[in-house]
Structure formats: C-alpha cells, structure tokens
Write a structure and sequence with these properties.
With 372 residues, this protein is α/β, with parallel strands linked by helices. It contains ten helices and 17 strands. The strands form three sheets. The protein has a nine-stranded mixed sheet with strand order 16-15-14-13-7-12-11-8-17. Strands 3-2-1-4-5-6 form a six-stranded parallel sheet, sandwiched between helices. Bound molecules: nicotinamide-adenine-dinucleotide.
C-alpha cells in the first residue's frame, strides 16, 4: 500500500509524546501536516516530522488531498467537532477520549464512519500495552475459564497536591456546586474499556459514587486554589450480561505512579492480574494463578507484542501508542481485520460513564442500555 497520510490536530504535550512518535515509527504511514489553534505549536510539531507542513486552519488541513487520516489530540470539548469534520470529509479518524461526553453522539459518529467504510480509533492506550494484549490472548485461550469477577483500578496521585493546576477541560470552576465528572471520564475510561474487552460481555447494570476529595485546587489562570467540585475519585459496582460481576475504581488523588492501571480477572479455571505502574524503569507486569496453583506467579510477555525496537523498559507512552497506531494502520489497510477500540467501543465505554454519573445523582442502580 502507498504510505498513509496522517494530519494531526492539536500539537500539545500528548501529540508530542505519544502520537507523533507513533506515526513516525510506522513505515506504512507519514505525517503530512499539523494544525493547532496556537500556530507556534503547530510549527514546532511539524518541524519534528520531516516533509510535513503546518496548516493555518482546520479547513486548510481538510482541503489537503494527501490527508487520509485525521488524528485529533485537542481538548475534550473540542474532540467531537474535529472528529466529525474528519469523517464528513471522508477521512479515517483517530481521536483522543472522550469523543463526546454523551454516549449516543459517540455511537452516531461510529455509525457514520461504518456507513462510509471509514475506520475510527479512540486513544484507549492501555489496550495496546503488550502485557494487557497478552492477558487478552490468555483469556481467549481459556486460561481463566469462564469469567466470574473483574476488579479494575486506574489510580495515580498526579492531582493529590492542590497546588498542581488541573488541566483545561478537567473541570470548570464556574459550573456551579454539583460535582462534575472528571476522573471517571479522563482516567476511568480505559479501565472500563479493558473490563468490557476482558469479560467479553456488555454491562447490564451499575451503581456508583463520585467523590470530591481535594475540594480546592489551582485551575489554569488562577494564582490561589479555588473551590472546584470535580470527581477526583469514584467507584462503582457492576453486573455483566454473562453473569460476571465487577468493581471499578478510578482516581487521580490516590498514591501511585503513572499510568496506574490494574486489571484483575478471576474465572472458573484461573485468574490473571496485569499492573501498569512504572517502577524502576519497568511499566507493566503480568501475573497468573491456576486452580491447582493458587499463588500468583509472573508470566512472560512475548517479544512479538512489543513495537519494533521496543521492549520491557521502553516508556509506556511511546511503546503503547506505537502499538495503537500500528493497529490502526493495519485496520485501514485490511478491511477484514476486526476493529479494535473504535468509536462504537468508545460509545459503550461512554455509556457506562454516563450511567455511573446517573447512578450517583439518583443514588441507585442504573440499567443499561441507556436510552439514546
Ligand atoms: N490516551 C491517553 O493515554 C492520554 C494521555 C494524555 C492526554 N490524553 C488526551 O490528549 C489530549 C491532549 O492532551 P495534552 O496533554 O496534549 O493537552 P495540551 O493542552 O498540551 O495540548 C492540546 C493542544 O490542542 C490545541 N487545541 C485545543 N483546541 C483546539 C482546536 N479546536 N483546534 C486545534 N487545536 C486545538 C491547544 O492549543 C493545545 O496545543 C487531551 O484530550 C487529553 O485528555 C490522552
């Protein structure tokens, strides 16, 4: 296939740390251009991608016939408009999460892409960790038997200190006294995605709580901490359609390092635990236990699951994102490959987020599917 042309919208920290290195590492693709509201940032990122240009508007990007993929790495509320503009101009779209805060809008975007034969992918980075990929393979091979219980955590302490400014889009100080969804969406989404992927079944009901444990914090532009009622910790209990049950907890005020995920699946034949917590240069660990050997032991992650040139000690953001982009390029090249982490998968995750928020506000169980 001819090289796939990708254009990046949003040239901030994550585009620089994960997206651009991912595109540059795949010989089947090239970055043709970059757009950002901040032109200096667009130029700076473009300078790191040989042969690319900085666009002066999104319209200019969409008018470029070399662009086959639009890669959206802006701020939460801006994701949807750029993603839809990409789909409407018949480009494949990679988008950071959330695509849209309402699950039905995300689903509609996914269905539009399907109807046009376009591929979509969402930045569910941790599905593309080699250890998580191995865990999924082992589940498919029958290592745990029939899934019974899933426990998931996504925790780190990046906003435990109130003097660490929250990022734009993580919370709005002018939005009133009601708690705003923050950690559940920004941090909980990938572990919800892993829960659905590992258990292999939809959720039927959830009950959960959002909590604001650090009441005042710095926000962009403020010099002193202000009251910001955001969900900085949350937990929910859930039941899957296949009878399995689960608990999920996400927080960014809980002591722990990046990225801070732990997925546990217990079944009729065995159990698996995957931890993605960077320590001493290693960011992923996989453990397994069997019915006849109940203590957990380390399991090896095969080399074939790492991106070319990567390995156990590569930083998580470049390693996992290289796998994500490589999977996307493969899916675009081969229409028979099943979609992984596409907008329809993102809609299912967003539906769970919307349901947990509803459960918190109603103080009770919420049934899925939600009404569109
Ligand atoms: N998947 C993951 O693991 C992961 C990790 C980190 C960040 N993220 C996500 O990546 C996104 C970017 O995060 P970041 O840390 O790079 O933020 P950032 O603030 O450093 O960069 C965002 C950039 O987008 C630009 N921008 C905003 N709205 C725009 C628009 N409408 N058009 C063009 N440019 C626009 C801004 O000028 C800025 O340069 C966020 O949605 C964040 O949640 C995902």
């Amino acid at each position: 296939m001819a090289e796939l042309g990708a254009a990046i919208v949003g040239a901030g920290r994550w585009a620089q740390r994960a997206h651009l290195p991912g595109w540059l590492r795949d010989p089947r693709a090239r970055v043709v251009g970059v757009y950002d509201l901040d032109q200096d940032r667009a130029r700076a990122l473009s300078a790191m991608a040989p042969g690319s240009r900085a666009y002066s508007s999104e319209a200019e990007l969409l008018a470029d016939p070399e662009v086959q993929v639009v890669d959206v790495v802006t701020w939460g509320p801006a994701h949807f408009l750029s993603a839809m503009a990409g789909l409407e101009s018949r480009r494949h779209v990679l988008c950071e999460k959330p695509v849209h805060r309402e699950w039905a809008r995300t689903r509609d975007a996914g269905e539009l892409a399907l109807s046009r034969g376009l591929r979509t992918k969402v930045g569910f980075t941790f599905r593309f960790s080699p250890a998580m990929m191995r865990m999924r393979e082992l589940i498919a091979e029958g290592y745990v038997g029939r899934p019974l219980v899933f426990n998931g955590f996504e925790q780190n302490s990046q906003f435990l200190d109130p003097m660490t400014p929250i990022r734009a889009g993580e919370g709005d100080p002018g939005a009133g006294a009601d708690i705003q969804v923050s950690s559940l969406e920004g941090y909980g989404a990938p572990i919800i995605d892993l829960a659905l992927w590992f258990v292999g079944s939809e959720l039927e009901e959830v009950v959960g709580q959002l909590a604001n444990l650090v009441p005042e914090r710095l926000v962009p532009g403020s010099q002193v901490p202000v009251r910001l009622p955001i969900d900085d910790a949350d937990a929910f209990l859930c039941r899957f359609a296949n009878g399995a049950i689960g608990t999920i907890q996400s927080s960014y005020v809980t002591v722990g390092n990046y990225p801070g995920l732990e997925a546990r699946l217990y079944g009729t034949e065995g159990a698996l635990i995957c931890r993605l917590v960077e320590e001493e240069g290693v960011c992923e660990r996989l453990y397994g236990a069997r019915r006849d050997q109940v203590e957990f032991r380390s399991l090896e992650v095969p080399e074939r699951l790492y991106p070319p040139g990567g390995g156990l000690t590569e930083p998580w953001d470049t390693a996992f994102y290289a796998n994500l982009i490589s999977a996307f390029v493969s899916e675009i090249a081969d229409p028979d490959l099943p979609a992984q982490a596409d907008f329809l998968a993102a809609a299912r995750v967003q539906e769970v987020i919307n349901a947990v928020e509803l459960s918190h506000r109603r103080h009770g169980w919420v049934q899925l599917p939600l009404e569109g």
